[in-house]
Structures are given as C-alpha cells and as structure tokens.
Amino acid sequence: MMPKPSAKERILDAYQDILIEHGIGAITLEAVAARAEVSKGGLLYHFGSKEALLQGLIDRVGHLGVTDLDEARAAPEGVVRYYLRSSVTDVTQDKAMHRTTLAAMRLIGNEEAVDEAMRAYTHNWRDLLAEHVGDSVLADFVGITGDGLYLRAMLGEDTSHLLDDFIAILARLGI
Amino acid sequence: MMPKPSAKERILDAYQDILIEHGIGAITLEAVAARAEVSKGGLLYHFGSKEALLQGLIDRVGHLGVTDLDEARAAPEGVVRYYLRSSVTDVTQDKAMHRTTLAAMRLIGNEEAVDEAMRAYTHNWRDLLAEHVGDSVLADFVGITGDGLYLRAMLGEDTSHLLDDFIAILARLGI
DNA sequence: GTCTATAGGACGATAGAC
DNA sequence: GTCTATCGTCCTATAGAC
Questions:
Q1: Model confidence over A20-50: pLDDT tens digits?
Q2: Average model confidence (pLDDT) for chain B?
Q3: How far apart are CA A71 and CA A82, in angstroms?
Q4: What digits encode the pLDDT tens for the residues A154-175?
Q5: In sequence order, which residues have a C-beta less than 8 Å from that of residue A114 and are 6 or more positions away?
Q6: Residue A54 CB neighbours (<10 A)
Q7: Are A144 and B155 in contact (CB < 8 Å)?
Q8: Is A38 helix (H, G, I), strand (E, B) or coil?
Q9: Where does the pLDDT of residue B92 fall: very low under 50, low under 70, confident under 90, or very high at 90 and above?
Q10: Would you tell me which residues 42-81 of chain B have a C-beta closer than 8 angstroms to some C-beta of chain A?
C-alpha cells in the first residue's frame, strides 16, 4: 500500500520538506539530494537543473490541485467545510496537497510561475465555492478566509482550534 | 516635508523594493546597493552584513507596527475598517507599513526572527480588534480575513474591489 | 562616509566511471 | 540510474585608498 516512493518522488518530497522547514535559502542541490538520500549527480539525473526541480513542484500543485477539488466535490461534509478544514494546520494534518501548498507558498514572489500556479489554485477554489455558496462575493469571502488560515499556517501557527467557530460564523451568514 | 532620506533609510527601502518586486533570490548586496545608489562598500558601512540588513527590516516592522496600531486607534472610520483597508492592495496603496509587511512576508519561513515579528504584529492587531469587536472569536475571524487579503496582495492581486462588500458582510455579523 | 579591489567560500552544473 | 570529482561563477565580506 505504501511502497518506497521512486527516487524522483523522494527528491520532490525532500525539496518540499526543506522549503517548509528551512525556507528557500536552505535549498541547495546538495541539501535536497542528501535529504532524498541520493547524491547530487543522482538528483541531477532526474531533475536536470534547479529550475527543473521548481517546475516539478509547480506540476505537483497542478495535479494535486485537481485531485483536491474532486475530493472536495465528493466530500460528505460539504465543500465549504472541506475547504476550511484543509486550510488549517494541526498536528495531524498530513494531506499531500497541504504540504505542497505550504512549500509553494515559500516561493511566492520569487518565481512568477509559482505565483501563477497559486493564483490558478485559489481561483479554481473560488469558482467551486461560488457554485455551492450561490453568491460570488460570499465565495470570495470564504476563499480569502481560507487564505488567511493558510498564512497563519505559514507562520507556524496551529489554527485548528478556530475551525468550528469559523464554520459557525459562516453559518450565521447563511453559508 | 519629504527631504531625501538618509543613506541608511534609502538602503532599507531598496532592500524592501527588491524583495517585493523580485523576491529573496534577487537580494544581493550589490543589487541593494545599486538600487539605493551607493556602492557595495557604502552599504556595508551602514549595515555590516546581510543579516544586519534583515535585522533592519525586522526593526522597521516593529516600529511601524506600533505607529500603525496608534493610527488605527485614532482613525475616524474605526479600527475594523482601518484594518481591512490597510490589508488590501490597490494602485494607490503606498502606506509605509504596507510595503514593509509585503517585503517581510517574502522572508517568512526563511528566518525565524521574521516569523516571530510577523506573529507579534498579527497578535497585536488581534488584541486591538478584540477590544473593538468585543468578542475574541470574531476578532480572530476579522484578523484572519485581513491576513487572507494580504496573501492575495502577496500574489500580486488587487483586492480593493472587495473591500466594501467585505465590510458589509462583517456588518451582518454585528461588527 | 563612501569608494575600488580582491580574497575566500559556496553553489550549480558538467564529465565521465561504474 | 547512481556515483565522485571538478570547473567556473557568483556572492559575501574584508582591506585599504580617498
């Protein structure tokens, strides 16, 4: 069920992990290779340059983003609840998209391609939220509330204790 | 009224500008010095190292943060409105704290001292909002809405068109 | 207080063995 | 597919003139 991931996936995981734990400044080919338990040469066989590594993360944002929206549509708890729940970080949050998003956020403003991928992701969510909330402005409002929770996650805060209260507040707005 | 800023201030402004426009990857002593119109040696006279430059930005977050909260307390429009307005980016937004915050956000996750300064700033705002909203959870909610708007600003989006609608939504919650 | 020049180190990427 | 070794570049920081 959980076989050892391929070297390529391990390398991308290592890239994410270092971004989340130490930030963009700690990203060197050597550090990523060491964490993925390959040599620098081994890394460069799979990703021909540092930029290829970045593109790998962007592709992951795209693929996992689609999966995430599909899961949201099918979630018994409903789209809004699913969205807010996946926006908070708590000790047990280990969803793949959550880690990929946190890693990508560390690169915002550094690479235009990352900014664009993140904008696309937030806008896709906005559209899905609009379908389920029935109001364009309220959809923006819920979307941006989730973004705020993500910013706090980026700062290392655990916001899970706010989740139920926030859902109750949105319920008062008819959401 | 607006004399030419001292070299030290110009250097810190240049540091911020490059962070906002090109990200942490574009920060080199040479690039900052060029933008501030001093030489590399001139820069290093005022800030003895790259880390000193970072500390300068952190200090600015602290000082401007205090000023910002004071202005919010005195704002005729009220604290909540002031907060949301200063969280959106539009073409005319040139408040000093806004630019400093956007620059500091580019460094989140890279330097623990930055994360701490940003957490302190958001928590001070939360406390002020709680005084004026009268409810702890609602204060967190408004605070995080502003954070979400800031994240969008970080992505290069203009969210000013949402401001009035968001204020109206909060009014429905008795805020 | 501001400059030029350069030492010294870190990093990305290539070459080639296995 | 994975490794070691190495080259060339870019960057921080220092030294010292003005």
A1: 999 999 999 999 999 999 999 999 999 999 9
A2: 96
A3: 9
A4: 999 999 999 999 999 999 999 9
A5: A54, A57, A58, A104, A107, A108
A6: 19
A7: no
A8: coil
A9: confident
A10: none
Closest CA of chain A from B82, distance in Å:
18
Amino acid at B12: L
Closest CA to A100 of A52, A153, A60: A60
Amino acid letter, residue A129: L
Co-location of A87 and A146 in the same domain: yes
Q: Tens of pLDDT along B14-57? A: 999 999 999 999 999 999 999 999 999 999 999 999 999 999 99
- Regarding whether B87 and B40 lie in a shared domain, the answer is no
Can you read off the two tokens belonging to residue B26?
């574009």
| Nearest nucleotide from residue B40 CA, by C1' atom | C3
**B70 is written with which tokens?**
């004071």
A113 CB near a chain B CB, below 8 Å?
A: no
What pLDDT does B93 receive? Answer: 82
Q: What is the mean pLDDT of residues B162-166?
A: 98
Do A61 and A144 belong to one domain? yes
* Containing structural domain, residue A21: 1-48
Give the separation between CA A31 and CA A88, rounded to whole angstroms. 28
Would the CB atoms of B138 and A19 count as touching at under 8 Å? no
* Whole-number distance in Å between A11 CA and C14 C1': 20
Same domain, B152 and B101: yes
What total number of domains does chain A contain? Answer: 2
Q: Does B23 touch chain A (CB under 8 A)?
A: yes
CA pair distance B38, B46, nearest whole angstrom: 11
- Read off the pLDDT band of B2 (50, 70, 90): low
CA distances from B134 to B18, B70, B148, B163 (A): 40, 19, 22, 22
| Nucleic strand D under 7 Å from the C-beta of B49 | yes
Token readout for A149 is 């929770």
DSSP output for B102-127: HHHHTTTTT-HHHHHHHHHHHHHHHH
* Mean pLDDT, residues A133-146: 98
Tell me what pLDDT residue B100 has. Answer: 98
